[in-house]
Q: What sequence folds into this?
């Protein structure tokens, strides 16, 4: 099935690369969502704090926020919609967040559904596991972080617990909480 010119609903799966077991979310978004808005949806659904740069990539083309002082080939995400990058089921794109830590998200267009006005969009259908804490050092740093917070004898145990708090649970994901947060983005 391919995207129609008219608005439809995209069911997408977002998986954080480099983490085992995987951290993922299944979302419903309008096909006409601007990439800049999609960035916000991804931040909220995954659990990031939107503290770092990001970009979308399809093939060799990058979409994000162009820097006027830093000319490059990045296209302005405010001028493109999700349906411009994903046009058929099973197509993928990459969403990179925090270039220093290198968090890569694989986004797959699972289904193209007919638009239904009564469905609140965006919406999270399901997900697994908590998003890693910001500035933890990417996939390898996250693994070290998890090892340190569960081992009271680890030399960094107390330091990391003081830095990020004691309440982090890598297995926790609350779809109701995510949808309550996403409701603020819903349009009438």
A:
């Amino acid at each position: 099935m391919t995207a129609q010119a008219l608005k439809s609903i995209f069911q997408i799966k977002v998986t954080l690369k480099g983490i085992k077991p995987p951290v993922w979310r299944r979302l419903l978004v309008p096909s006409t969502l601007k990439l800049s808005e999609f960035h916000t949806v991804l931040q909220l659904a995954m659990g990031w704090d939107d503290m770092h740069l990001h970009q979308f990539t399809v093939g060799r083309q990058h979409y994000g926020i162009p820097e006027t002082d830093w000319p490059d080939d990045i296209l302005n995400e405010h001028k493109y919609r999700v349906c411009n990058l994903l046009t058929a089921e099973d197509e993928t794109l990459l969403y990179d967040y925090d270039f220093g830590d290198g968090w890569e998200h694989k986004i797959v267009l699972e289904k193209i559904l007919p638009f239904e006005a009564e469905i609140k969009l965006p919406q999270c259908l399901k997900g697994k596991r908590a998003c890693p804490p910001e500035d933890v050092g990417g996939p390898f740093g996250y693994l070290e972080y998890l090892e340190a917070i569960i081992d009271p004898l680890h030399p960094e145990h107390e330091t990391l617990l003081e830095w990020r708090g004691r309440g982090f649970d890598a297995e926790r994901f609350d779809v109701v909480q995510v949808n309550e947060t996403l409701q603020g983005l819903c349009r009438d």
Observations:
- Residues 8-129+173-183 form a domain with the Structural Genomics Hypothetical 15.5 Kd Protein In mrcA-pckA Intergenic Region; Chain A fold (CATH 3.10.290.30).
- The longest strand covers residues 103-114.
